[in-house]
Design goal:
The protein has 229 residues and is mostly helical. It has 12 helices and no strands. Helix 2 runs antiparallel to helix 9 (129-139). The chain binds iron/sulfur cluster.
Length: 229
């Protein structure tokens, strides 16, 4: 395990101590996780919640609900999440992919091999690495670490990786920090660490870091003597 991985593991323990387990993803079903993974792109979670509520109220928060809704109506229902043209088309394309290749079943999708499935997901419209990994981990319970902007901020501000680190480098750091003997344990830690990073990001590590009172303050390099920027 590298020095950075060891440090991230310690930061994970500190976050767990401070915030406890987060019980992510905030959704009632695996399909809702998938929908949320598309809707949350470039959008605050409040907008996602309103879109999910609209879909639920309209009886569209199911495979069949999305299959049978028109794209125009779907755009209207998810309007609070923004980027509705792209997101509605992406959600419809995902359901079509599931129907064509996995009998319309998320359970069947979950049985596919992680690496092959990730490659397949990445070919779909509107699916980048973060969305693919969020679906793999939170909807399908594959042991995949999800990288987002909050992780990038925390990791680079703590100098575990350079500011221009690529998604794969950040993911590899996370993978190293949560490495566990079993697939289930790895998935559990991947879930928890990502959720905790989002929590510290929302509370402290936004565009402007608020380090005072942050549980990760003791891990800042040369915390007392060095300004952050
Ligand atoms: S707010 Fe400061 S101490 Fe907290 S994670 Fe961000 S850089 Fe680290």
């Amino acid at each position: 395990m590298s020095e950075s991985e060891v440090l991230l593991r310690k930061m994970y323990a500190a976050l767990l101590d401070a915030y406890g387990t987060r019980k992510w993803w905030p959704a009632e079903t695996a399909f809702e996780v998938v929908i949320g993974a598309f809707l949350t792109q470039a959008t605050a979670w409040r907008g996602v919640e309103r879109s999910i509520a609209n879909l639920r109220e309209a009886g569209r928060l199911t495979m069949e609900g999305i299959r049978s809704v028109t794209e125009e109506k779907l755009r209207e229902l998810i309007r609070p999440s923004g980027f509705v043209q792209r997101k509605a088309a992406s959600i419809k394309a995902f359901v079509q992919f599931l129907d064509e290749h996995y009998g319309g079943s998320l359970e069947q999708l979950a049985e596919a091999h992680t690496t092959e499935l990730r490659i397949q997901l990445l070919t779909l419209p509107g699916v980048g690495p973060e969305t693919a990994d969020a679906i793999l981990l939170y909807a399908l319970e594959h042991p995949v670490f999800v990288v987002d902007e909050y992780l990038r901020r925390v990791v680079t501000r703590h100098e575990l990786l350079p500011a221009n680190a690529r998604y794969a480098n950040l993911q590899s750091l996370g993978d190293g920090a949560i490495a566990s003997p079993t697939r289930e344990e790895t998935a559990r830690h991947a879930n928890e660490l990502h959720a905790l990073i989002v929590e510290v990001g929302k509370r402290h590590c936004g565009t402007t870091p608020r380090c005072e009172g942050c549980p990760l303050r003791p891990f800042l390099p040369d915390a007392k003597s060095k300004p952050l920027y």
